[in-house]
Specification:
There is one protein chain. The protein has three helices and five strands, in the order αβββαββα. By secondary structure, it is an alpha+beta fold. The protein is globular and about 35 Å long. The protein starts with a helix and ends with a helix. The model has no long low-confidence stretch (mean pLDDT 86).
Length: 98
């Protein structure tokens, strides 16, 4: 199975939302927290506040990992703006639903 097939299989198993553990690190301090995640267009979206430690860790080191049960993925996080602007409101629509 190539990468694109594996990615498609993963996202089909996840559906459109779920809870995942987000792992971040900066310096020598790891952090893990459960996040509500939305799966839109083959990407994972979540929301946090700039006052939280995970936000500052991602700013310092955007390499993150997510897991849910036996599913695990690694990637590079980016900030997409506020929930009402992200994906032209699709994030806000789904997030208020779940």
């Amino acid at each position: 199975m190539d990468f694109l097939q594996a990615k498609e299989t993963l996202f089909s198993r996840l559906g459109d939302h779920g809870y995942m553990v987000l792992a971040t690190s900066a310096g020598d301090k790891p952090l893990a927290c459960t996040m509500t995640c939305l799966f839109i267009g083959g990407a994972v979206y979540m929301q946090t506040d700039s006052a939280f430690e995970k936000y500052s860790q991602i700013k310092q080191n955007p390499k993150v990992a997510l897991c849910s049960g036996s599913l695990q993925m690694e990637g590079t996080a980016s900030f997409e703006g506020g929930p009402l602007t992200a994906l032209e409101g699709e994030f806000a629509r789904l997030f208020t639903r779940y």
